[in-house]
Amino acid sequence: MYVPTRYFPVVLLSLIGFYYLLNISREEREYLHALRDRLSCPESHVIIDLDSSHAALTKNVTQPRKANAAFVILARNQDLSGVLDSIQQNEDRFNKKFGYPYVFLNDEPFEPDFIKYTSEVISTTAEYGVIPHDHWHQPKWINEDRATAGRQKLEAQDVMYAESVPYRNMCRFNSGFFFRHELLKKYDYYWRIEPDIKFFCDLDFDPFLFMQDNKKVYAFTIALHEYVETIETLWNTTKEFIQKYPQHIPKGNALRFLSEDGGATYNGCHFWSNFEIADLNFWRSPAYMAYFEYLDQAGGFYYERWGDAPVHSIGAALLARPDQIHFFNEIGYRHSPWTHCPPGETHKKGKCSCDPKDNFDRIDWSCLKDFEASFA
Ligand SMILES: Nc1nc2c(ncn2[C@@H]2O[C@H](COP(=O)(O)OP(=O)(O)OP(=O)(O)O)[C@@H](O)[C@H]2O)c(=O)[nH]1
Ligand SMILES: *[C@@H]1O[C@H](CO)[C@@H](O)[C@H](O)[C@H]1NC(C)=O
Ligand SMILES: *[C@@H]1O[C@H](CO)[C@@H](O)[C@H](O)[C@H]1NC(C)=O
Ligand SMILES: [Mg+2]
Predict the structure, then answer these.
(1) Which residue of the set 276, 293, 330, 372 is catalytic?
(2) Distances (CA, A) of 345 to 205, 340, 352
(3) Reported pTM
(4) 135-373: CATH homologous superfamily?
(5) Which domain of life is it from (predicted)?
(6) CB–CB of 133/181 below 8 Å?
(7) Can you give the pLDDT at residue 53?
């Protein structure tokens, strides 16, 4: 329900009175005060909807432990219907019980309708941010003739998004900038959601707390082989980085996920980054920042079409141990054209609305076996 802002203080004060009667904890009281302060001085990019604050507060009474985490959705204004579809499922299957906030990011300002309709579906709070110019656009030091030639070469090979500069901006932004955005600075963990995805199962546990309690830095549902045309020099550039910065590469990393010959060649395996739950501080670490900077200077985001999926995956497998990376079998998920549908008991427990035979895990193109091999 979209409630005019002027009613917020009134309803909130009565809510606060109600919770005082219930003899709430100090933290909950502090949270209510903070919420009230924000409402009496609303920022333009902050929307707090009434139903939602109620849901979050009710929830907090029964679910006192939470991670410092948010959903992150990069989208254009025209992605609205696909975004609504994704967040409705996220709310129904998970977030109505767990109450995490959302951060929406865009290279242009979100239109009022985008904010209005998404905040109607969301049971908690959402912030809507614009991406700084230099975090999105092709850097000045990229040679445009070489970039044009690179796009034409991929177009001739019929590669998806071969000709698109915005797609490349998006891949570079997701690889190296989103976790540094002003609106994400306050969070430790994020869950990336894209438009038009499916969540098939109820979740009765909190994946963010799982990450935190088990010291995981990166989690996925689908791992697969990349089209190598888009990353022709990515592995060579990565090997140069390893040689120049050995201090950043920990012993016992998950290299086996990426390579079957000790790092000589890249097998193309990557985690499918349209879904990810991960530790923002891992991306912000000196090691990953150095890796991203090295790739960015090499220019492959524009001269080729390096995707954020192989970049994140190589970053995670090179700079973390296998036990810091997690496969969320319980999360039934689809991003066209692939599905992870949990089999057996896990399917039943989650009341999953997918056919368990429709499962990417054990087909040839899947890299789940390479992930498992990285533990050996
Ligand atoms: N703001 C903004 N978001 C974008 C732009 N291009 C892509 N995105 C978002 O970035 C994410 C990835 O883009 P997609 O178009 O889904 O790319 P993909 O997943 O590789 O390919 P398909 O989903 O198969 O089209 C999605 O969340 C998009 O909404 C853009 O130019 N501007
Ligand atoms: C819920 O409780 C936790 C821990 O007591 C607190 O940090 C948080 O701010 C509260 N509110 C929400 C909506 O998370
Ligand atoms: C990668 O580097 C090796 C050794 O320097 C070279 O032989 C090979 O051609 C390079 N591959 C690409 C795709 O540039
Ligand atoms: Mg997509």
Answers:
(1) 276
(2) 16, 15, 10
(3) 0.84
(4) Spore Coat Polysaccharide Biosynthesis Protein SpsA; Chain A (3.90.550.10)
(5) Eukaryota
(6) no
(7) 39
